[in-house]
Amino acid sequence: MSSSSSSESSSSSDDGAEIFLQTIATVVKAIVEDDEEETPQPKRRRYIARERNTANNLLVSDYFSTEPKYEEKMFRRRFRMSRNLFLRISRYLEEKYVYFQQKPDVTGQLEFSTWQKVTAALRQLAYGNSSDIMDDYLKMSARVARESLHNFCSCILELYRKRYLRKLGTSWRLSWATQDAGSLDCMKWPWELCPTAWQGAHSSGFHGMPAIMLEAVASQDLWIWHAFFGMPGSHYDITSINHSPLFNDRVNGIRPKGTFFVNGVEYVYGYYLVDGIYPEWGVFVKSFTRHGTIDPKRLKFNRVQMAARKDVERAFGVRMYHSSQRDFGGLR
After folding, report:
1. Domain assignment present for 87
2. Domain identity same for 317 and 211
3. Higher-confidence position of 17 and 242
């Protein structure tokens, strides 16, 4: 009896241990499965078929075909330049820089065209939009849009810096400026296409539309070799000259290489013909006050100075006329 009872007790204990081990195994398996469910699985990058060739065909149909959908006026409004200028810049970029050349990618498909990259850069510059918005019309990712903007700005600076962004530094330019006597003046330039967010800062009660103060120096051949504009608020000639970078080099002790002589006196800086509102600075040549002027030499000087000072106003008038003819900027 004792042996049978002991065997039964041992078998029952083995069964209890087996059940306990199975229970532990079930609990551990459940915990592991829960951990696997909570652990986020790595996501693969989703490929977006943007169909850039279709977008390029749409761009050509809208603006660059033989009979484009949008006329020249709409092109100027949206690109802030004429179609001919756009095509000329695009051609230069494509000829001189590999980035703007349309090449096949690793899959054999053609990359974005030159017109698409230049359009993306100009839209971001003209409207201040983010690079992500280029995906709607040009089917271009934000990364490519940013690359297009960066390369466009760098290449434009390299192409046109020497001609259009140069400073008065060379001796021949100094000779030209001193002989032709550059004229300095300011004017309010109407800005009909001013962005809505900026209209309050560039509007005043005197003008019916937003306007910016333009400070320029022009010569007799209508060449404007200095221009400063963009300050918000109400400004005039004095406030503009106080913010202008025109005399930064002179303040810092930097001057152009070369000198010139007038009546046996050597001068190391150029001069500017201005009207009576400007301060009495050594670089400004103003006319004598007419009140009480009876000296024939002063009268002759006033006549010649006033005639030469009209060069910058004439340059303003010519450019405003051509701008109104092109219907660009809403100038009248």
Report:
1. yes
2. yes
3. 242
The amino acid at 208: G
Per-chain mean pLDDT for the chain: 76
Contacts 24+ apart (CB under 8 A), 197-202: 198/232, 201/232, 201/233, 202/232, 202/233
- For the chain, what percentages of helix, strand and coil (3-state, to nearest 5) are there? 55, 10, 35
**pLDDT score, position 181:** 57
Q: What range does the domain containing 255 cover?
A: 171-326
> Given the structure tokens 């106080």, which residue do they identify?
242
Nearest alpha-carbon partner for 211 in 239, 187, 241: 187
Q: Does 244 fall in a domain? A: yes
Taken in order 192, 194, 200, 204, the sign of the CA dihedral is: negative
Where does a domain end: 139, 164, 189? 164
Burial class (CB in 10 A: 0-12, 13-18, 19+), 2: exposed
Q: Domain check: are 77 and 181 in the same one? A: no
> Which of 14-23, 84-93, 315-324 is predicted least confidently?
315-324
Model confidence over 258-308: pLDDT tens digits? 677 777 887 777 778 888 888 888 788 888 876 656 778 888 888 888 887
Considering the domain boundaries, does residue 155 fall inside one?
yes
Tokens linked to 97? 């820089």
User: Residue with structure tokens 């990618």?
Assistant: 105
% of the chain with per-residue pLDDT over 70: 75
